[in-house]
């Protein structure tokens, strides 16, 4: 009977994932799941979490709506994982309130700009094997990147060999525009198609 009462008295939002530690920091709930060998984002993170640390795990993907129920979330640390894929709606539901998002030191080659451009958070994207392309350039121009980590966004692969190994900012400062390159390629393809029609 006492156990049943205890279950009723504990708010549903206050349970803590078995692989994590939940603490209070200045009255705000912090959920600490660092270095716990996690391969995916825990499902039972408390709804009132404000700080969430999932760094130094083996998470490979951030699915759509992964944090949707965490409407109070302000800081999210996903650094030092093995993340390769981020869905377009990965941060849906937390975009407005999130203040910092750390995705550094993962295996991210590309990211749908829709996943990041809705965010007001300060982003850390350094030390990933980026493929320098139009979408990444748009993220760099439009998202709120952490100034300290921008220099470490390096082109691991790129449309031209000369850009490989260089910081993306340096390449763009030299006047390269990945979006116009793609546009020109499309224009050429359309020209060839139209020429085929006329022929």
TrEMBL record:
Q: Where is the signal peptide?
A: 1-15
Entry GO CC: plasma membrane
Compartment(s): Membrane
UniProt topology in membrane:
Single-pass membrane protein
Q: Which InterPro entries match?
A: Leu-rich_rpt, Leu-rich_rpt_typical-subtyp, LRR_dom_sf, LRR_TM_domain-containing, LRRNT
Question: Chief subcellular site?
Answer: membrane
Pfam family for this entry, one: LRR_8
Q: Which UniProt keywords apply?
A: Leucine-rich repeat, Membrane, Repeat, Signal, Transmembrane, Transmembrane helix
Could you tell me which residue ranges the LRRNT domain spans? Answer: 15-51
Which SUPFAM superfamilies does the record cross-reference, listed alphabetically?
A: L domain-like (SSF52058)
For this chain, the family text in UniProt reads: Belongs to the LRRC3 family.
Protein name according to UniProt:
Leucine-rich repeat-containing protein 3
Species this chain originates from? Neodrepanis coruscans (wattled asity)
Give the source lineage, highest ranks first.
Eukaryota, Metazoa, Chordata, Craniata, Vertebrata
Q: Which gene encodes it?
A: Lrrc3
């Amino acid at each position: 009977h006492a156990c049943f009462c205890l279950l009723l008295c504990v708010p549903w939002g206050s349970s803590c994932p078995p692989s994590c530690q939940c603490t209070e920091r200045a009255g705000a709930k912090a959920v600490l799941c660092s270095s716990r060998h996690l391969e995916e984002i825990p499902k039972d993170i408390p709804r009132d979490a404000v700080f969430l640390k999932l760094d130094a795990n083996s998470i490979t993907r951030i699915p759509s709506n992964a944090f949707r129920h965490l409407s109070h979330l302000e800081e999210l640390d996903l650094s030092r994982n093995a993340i390769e894929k981020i869905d377009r709606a990965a941060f849906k539901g937390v975009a407005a309130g999130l203040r910092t998002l750390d995705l550094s030191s993962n295996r991210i080659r590309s990211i749908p700009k829709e996943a990041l451009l809705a965010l007001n958070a300060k982003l850390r994207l350094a030390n990933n094997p980026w493929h320098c392309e139009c979408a990444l350039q748009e993220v760099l121009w439009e998202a709120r990147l952490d100034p300290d980590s921008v220099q470490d966004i390096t082109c691991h692969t790129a449309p031209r060999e000369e850009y490989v190994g260089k910081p993306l900012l340096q390449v763009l400062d030299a006047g390269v525009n990945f979006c116009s390159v793609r546009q020109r390629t499309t224009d050429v393809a359309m020209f060839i198609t139209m020429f085929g029609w006329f022929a």
